[in-house]
Amino acid sequence: MAGTPPFIDEPTDTREAIMVATYRALSTHGYADLTIQRIGDEFGKSKSLLYHHYDGKDDLLLDFLDFMLERFEAALPIDDHEDSMAHLKAVLDHGILGSDPAVNGDFMGAMIELRAQAANDPDYRDHFTRSDRFFQERLVDVLRSGIREGVFRKVDPNRSAAFLHTMIVGAMTQRTTVDGFDGDPLRAELQQYLRVVLSADRSLE
Amino acid sequence: MAGTPPFIDEPTDTREAIMVATYRALSTHGYADLTIQRIGDEFGKSKSLLYHHYDGKDDLLLDFLDFMLERFEAALPIDDHEDSMAHLKAVLDHGILGSDPAVNGDFMGAMIELRAQAANDPDYRDHFTRSDRFFQERLVDVLRSGIREGVFRKVDPNRSAAFLHTMIVGAMTQRTTVDGFDGDPLRAELQQYLRVVLSADRSLE
């Protein structure tokens, strides 16, 4: 059961309905076996309507990736954490343990397939360059806030964010491509990094 | 110019000749556009000979992945580093900066495409499960040696190896799928982790 993508409960226009159909078809078939026909089957309308809006499968998928990123951006500013350390831990748990129940594993598998298209396709590469930059900048924001609050040491936020972001990308890649991936040792070592390298609280060392 | 894969100068039998042809075709065309015909073109012999040995493209590519891993395993025990810290830094530089001139960038791009197949194909998943385990265990070996030498603290080598290995997978994924990936900030922060979390030398903190 592929369900609906995060941030859409009920589609309110044609584009949103196409995006939900794409999310479902991608979760069910993966990238390699995805066709406009299969997205059309989920959409419940003729595939000619899809061809009216998109040149083909990749054109549609690139719009889908942009749509997901826009939605993610719009949903972001909900910051109800105790402090920046708690906020950072929540972001890392989410990335490393894949703990968001709204995102199914099959969809994450399809996302690594889409990312792999970037190895040869400049349009996919452009998307993942922008989305990686976006997520890394959000980490910089959390680190800057924490430094202001005195929760983090005066580290270079760009350097720490690059490090943490690469860790999240690595965990997502492994989680979707190996059997029995265990995020717990990784998470424990990351907590150690947070305590010893980032935290301003010297008593935690 | 795709060149020859690491660990093969001159193929000495048919399998090695097929492996060199596969490496070149994969570096030139990537996974999605690869065909048995294109491997046959690099091989310089009829594609029917390839079909004699393999059921198809994926069967050949899975044998190629095993072949590369076997060669990597056989080439490994060259340890001429000053101590385990120097050894670990060399491994990490290699993984994060992609500093091995014998491995071209196009080939690394094809490797992320092959890894993405593991999201839906159990045979690819089995390979990457084994190869990730192999590389992670080599990191455990280096960490254990360093603990024995007194160069590293008495950390949990499995936990630290999982952390470092995920960082390498993340860096390889980013390097092949985004524009302008800069490994330097990542490497600087990793040195910080080595100094403050792993090194037994307290004067480095």
Indicate the radius of gyration of chain A in whole angstroms: 19 Å
Biggest interface, chains and residues, is: A-B, 50 and 50 residues
Low-pLDDT windows of residues of chain A: none
Shape of chain A: elongated
Strand content of chain A: under 5%
Please estimate the helix content of chain A: 55-70%
How far the N terminus sits from the C terminus of chain A, by CA atoms, comes to: 45 Å
Global structural class of chain A: mainly alpha
Q: Can you count the beta strands of chain A?
A: 0
Compute the average pLDDT of chain A.
Answer: 88
Largest sheet of chain A: none
User: What kind of oligomer do you see?
Assistant: homodimer
How many helical stretches of chain A? 9
Order of helices and strands of chain A: HHHHHHHHH
3D architecture notes:
Two copies of one chain form a homodimer. Chain A has nine helices and no strands. The longest helix of chain A has 28 residues. Chain A has 205 residues and is an all-alpha fold. The first copy, chain A, starts with 13 loop residues before the first helix and ends in a 7-residue tail after the last helix. Chains A and B meet through helix 6, helix 7, helix 8 and helix 9 of A and helix 6, helix 7, helix 8 and helix 9 of B.
Topology at a glance:
The structure is a homodimer of 205-residue chains.
Chain A lengths: L13 H16 L6 H8 L3 H7 L3 H19 L8 H14 L7 H13 L4 H28 L7 H21 L6 H15 L7
